[in-house]
Design brief:
homodimer; about 170 residues; mainly alpha; Arc Repressor Mutant, subunit A; about 60% helix; about 5% strand; DNA-binding
Chain lengths: ~170, ~170
DNA sequence: CGAAGATTGATCCATCTGGATGTATCTGGC
DNA sequence: GCCAGATACATCCAGATGGATCAATCTTCG
């Protein structure tokens, strides 16, 4: 059986929407992560963090966490790596000594511009199969999904409710 | 500045398509991965692997790799974990002793049915903001992206071409 | 003011990840 | 049939990941 036919079958199951989105994103991430890692020697989350800091000078780690849904320690590490390389600087907030305000440096802005340009090329590749109207439609619908209240919290997959469930497969 | 306003700003940049898709998927993955990990004690790739084996009895690891774009060793590990738990069995192919044909067991089918049901609920949550027509449009457009020739290979982010580029940020 | 609790970000540690390598097997050219 | 190279899958290992914990600071309220 050909790969194409198997993919068609998967995209005909009841889980086709999840499967398709997974497929696209796994594929794209493999390309992107490898590239950022190899060329810039940093995890891909470090550059998202740099992007956020560039857009919102003085942003705090906890705010970045809400823009890119990642665990808190991921942001900590990314900030510390970017700081060590002189791409950002961290200033303790004058109003709250717990907070660190993050600012991009000139060197950081230079690197970021380069990555943004490459990412734009990548975006063009990825969305090449869609014409302009289709891209806008896709974007509009994806935006609706993103704005949905259950993207980040789930009733169906609530780990708290699941704790009562038996881990029946872990017996072997 | 509110989180919502910052997200709006990000989704107005030239990279809005990539950013939006990333946002949706990072958010959803966090929910899904945590749940599968916690309730079933296995990485989420293990259940994709189980799903593929269930759909295509006798499938080989290299074929699964094409259905779910992951490195080869990820599939190896998943298969070995599923085997250890008695959810699949592996048979050496009669025509090629290098290959292992993978088959789901009754126990595996039982667990899979449960996860599929939960995943379907999750899918409903995620796509709740779209009506039926919108979902079909979204699916159709995403399918076009998936079928594009540059999902898995990139010119813009080709690590080979990048090797010549200086890792200028790694100097610190 | 002082103590309890909340919040921010850093760090710890067990686990996961993926590129590289290893082992077994198969294929093609001679 | 034999050897070089290709292929399938397993394993290794350095580094990434994320839940849990920790230290520092702030807030609330008596």
């Amino acid at each position: 059986m050909q790969t194409r036919d198997m993919l068609d079958s998967i995209f005909e199951t009841e889980l086709r929407h999840l499967m398709l989105v997974s497929y696209v994103v796994l594929g794209n991430n493999a390309v992107t992560n490898r590239y950022i890692e190899k060329v810039y020697g940093m995890p891909v989350h470090a550059w998202s963090t740099l992007f956020a800091i560039s857009m919102f000078p003085g942003i705090r780690a906890k705010e970045i966490k809400q823009l890119f849904p990642r665990p808190q320690n991921t942001i900590s590490r990314a900030a510390s790596l970017l700081d060590a390389r002189g791409l950002i600087r961290q200033e303790t907030s004058p109003t709250d000594a717990r907070e660190k305000r993050l600012y991009i440096t000139d060197k950081g802005a230079e690197i970021l511009a380069e990555i943004r340009a490459t990412s734009l090329e990548r975006q063009e590749e990825l969305f090449a199969p869609l014409d302009e109207a289709e891209r806008e439609t896709f974007f509009r619908l994806a935006r609706k999904i993103a704005d949905g209240p259950q993207l980040l919290t789930s009733r169906a997959m609530d780990p708290a409710g699941a704790e009562t469930r038996e881990r029946r497969d872990a017996s072997a």
